[in-house]
């Protein structure tokens, strides 16, 4: 009798497990347009990102969330802050960045950077609903960008088609003695 109950419980677990583990948040990172599309039960979002610059790589493929850390500091890159980190492939993560003027172009060491506010929103969604992550597209090279002549100019201008509207994504930047403290 006890064996039948155990067998029945195991059968129910195998049948119910796929339904219990379904991630509801779909994250699509498009390296070619430097954007992220997020679809969840609470709505859809499109945000500018920053992926790997020339000489570095952002892994492409289908991923699941490996771990999440609300407060994380890079062990490889100068103890740089990585707020609301969602790790998906070893040390690679989607996380917030305080270098918001670089969003929309590839400048990272491989992680997918988004604004701190968007990172907090995404972190909460993934925490509540789970997620799958797809990273697709060919990242633009540095030759596809025109950099500003001085620090006074707004943003780098992309020579190819624009990735996303800019104006409302600006956030305050942290400077120490006129320089950004984080690479």
UniProtKB/TrEMBL annotation:
<feature type="active site" description="Nucleophile">
    <location>
        <position position="111"/>
    </location>
</feature>
<feature type="domain" description="L,D-TPase catalytic">
    <location>
        <begin position="25"/>
        <end position="136"/>
    </location>
</feature>
<dbReference type="InterPro" id="IPR050979">
    <property type="entry name" value="LD-transpeptidase"/>
</dbReference>
<comment type="similarity">
    <text>Belongs to the YkuD family.</text>
</comment>
<keyword id="KW-0573">Peptidoglycan synthesis</keyword>
<dbReference type="InterPro" id="IPR038063">
    <property type="entry name" value="Transpep_catalytic_dom"/>
</dbReference>
<dbReference type="InterPro" id="IPR005490">
    <property type="entry name" value="LD_TPept_cat_dom"/>
</dbReference>
<comment type="pathway">
    <text>Cell wall biogenesis; peptidoglycan biosynthesis.</text>
</comment>
<keyword id="KW-0808">Transferase</keyword>
<feature type="active site" description="Proton donor/acceptor">
    <location>
        <position position="95"/>
    </location>
</feature>
<feature type="region of interest" description="Disordered">
    <location>
        <begin position="136"/>
        <end position="169"/>
    </location>
</feature>
<protein>
    <submittedName>
        <fullName>L,D-transpeptidase</fullName>
    </submittedName>
</protein>
<dbReference type="Pfam" id="PF03734">
    <property type="entry name" value="YkuD"/>
</dbReference>
<keyword id="KW-0133">Cell shape</keyword>
<keyword id="KW-0961">Cell wall biogenesis/degradation</keyword>
